[in-house]
Amino acid sequence: EEDLLNDVCREVVEKWSESQIVDAKETKEDELRAIASMMEKQAKIVVKPKEVSQEEQQRKAALLAQYANVTDEEEYPFPGLDETLGFAGELLSALNTPPALFRNTNVEDVVNARKLERELLRDEFQKKKEQDKLQREKDKLAKQERKEKEKKRTQKGERKR
Question: Where are the compositionally biased (Basic residues) regions (predicted)?
Answer without folding.
Answer: 149-161
